[in-house]
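Hey, I was hoping to borrow your eyes for a little while. I'm sending you its amino acid sequence along with the C-alpha cells. Take your time with it, there's no hurry, and the full record follows here.
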Amino acid sequence: MESKIISGVVVFILLTLCSTSTLANVTNYETEGNLESPKPAGCISVSELTNEQNPVDIFTGLNTCLINHDYKNAAELYFAGMSYGLFDAKRVSDNTAHQAIIVLRMNVFSSQSQDVMEKLQTELTKITSENTEICRSLINLGAPVYYPNYMVQHGIRAFTDQGKTDGLIEHFDSGSAWKEVLSASVKCA
C-alpha cells in the first residue's frame, strides 16, 4: 500500500514537472519586402492581370474571390499565382526563399472552411481537366517582368548577403523557364 502511494506521488511530481515547462521566447525576424503585395489584384479573371503583379498580389485577389464565393476566378488566380511562384523559384538563387509560396498558400488557405476549400478544389479539377482556356490566359499574360522582392526578402540570404547580390540566378533563361512552368503547373502543351 505504501509503495502505491509513493509511486502515485512520484508520477504526480513527474507530470507536474513536465507540464510546467518554461515557455520559450520566439522572435520572428522579417525583412522589408517579405511577402509584399505592391499591386494587389481584386477578384478578377487572369486576363485582367498584368505580368507586373507578383503571386502575393494575385493571391490577394484569390482571397477576395473566396470571400465572394467566386470559385471559378479563385481557381484561375490560383493557377496564375502558383505559375508565377514556380517561375520565381526557378530564378531566385536562395533555396530558402522558395518557401515564400508555401507560406503564402498557408496564409490564404488556413482560414478557409472545409466547404470553401472543397468548392475551390472542384473548380481546380475542372480547369485541369480542360486546360485550354487557362493555358491561353497564362500564355497571353506572359512570364513575370517584376523583380521577385517578395521571395528574395523571404530567404535567409536577405539577412546574410546585405545587398551583395540581387538574389537572382545569373544568365537565367526566362523564355524556357516560363514554358517549363506552364508545362508543369497546368500541363500546357
